Amino acid sequence: MNTQRAKYPIAILSGLALVGGLAGCSTAAESTASTSGGDSGSSAAPQTDAPAGTGGYKDGEYTEKGDYQSPNGNEEVTVTVTLASDVITAVKVVGDGDNPNSKLYQGKFADGIGDVVVGKKIDDIKVDKVAGSSLTSGGFNDAIDAIKADAAS
Questions:
Q1: Which of 15, 26, 109, 152 yields a CA-CA distance of 20 to 30 A from 86?
Q2: Residue (of 59, 72, 134) closest to 98 by Cα position
């Protein structure tokens, strides 16, 4: 019986060492994930996908078109952004939808986008859904990428 009692402390210590080692691995993985700018899943807040502070954009007003795919086919939105010190100070989105549903969602997106991006650094935005419109954000993000290229110093 003494040999079985001696096995329990060894088994317990081995188990604790294994759990402690695994816990250390998961902490490192969580730390990496939280600093990598992952998807927050928020429906109205901008998401950070670009490294912060990579700006250096010229102040001014920029206009670009962005394309996206909807159930009604290829759609387009025209995005106008005013930049000051890499911050969006004004935004205007004009849809080019022919289908009534496209017009509806583009209009909702245009009405709500200012609340989401105005006052934010252009490098810190990546919109996924605004006012119930999730597809229009693809064209908006496409246009923002083109604006960043236009405004780059």
A1: 109
A2: 72
Q: Tokens for 96?
A: 């080019």
Confidence at residue 132, expressed as pLDDT on a 0 to 100 scale? 82
Q: How far apart are the first and last CA of the chain?
A: 79
Asked if 35 contacts 104 with a C-beta cutoff of 8 angstroms, the reply is no
- 3-class DSSP state for residue 125? coil
**68 Rama sector, left if φ>0, alpha if ψ -120 to 50, beta otherwise:** beta
Residue 130 in contact with residue 101, Cβ under 8 Å?
no
Q: One digit per residue, pLDDT tens: the chain, 153 residues?
A: 555 555 555 555 455 444 444 344 433 333 322 222 333 333 333 333 334 445 589 999 999 999 999 888 899 999 999 999 999 999 999 998 888 989 999 999 999 999 999 999 999 999 988 888 889 999 999 999 999 999 996
- CB 148 within 8 Å of CB 72: no
Q: What are the b/e assignments for 27-62, b being 16+ CB within 10 Å?
A: eeeeeeeeeeeeeeeeeebbbbebeeeebebeeeeb
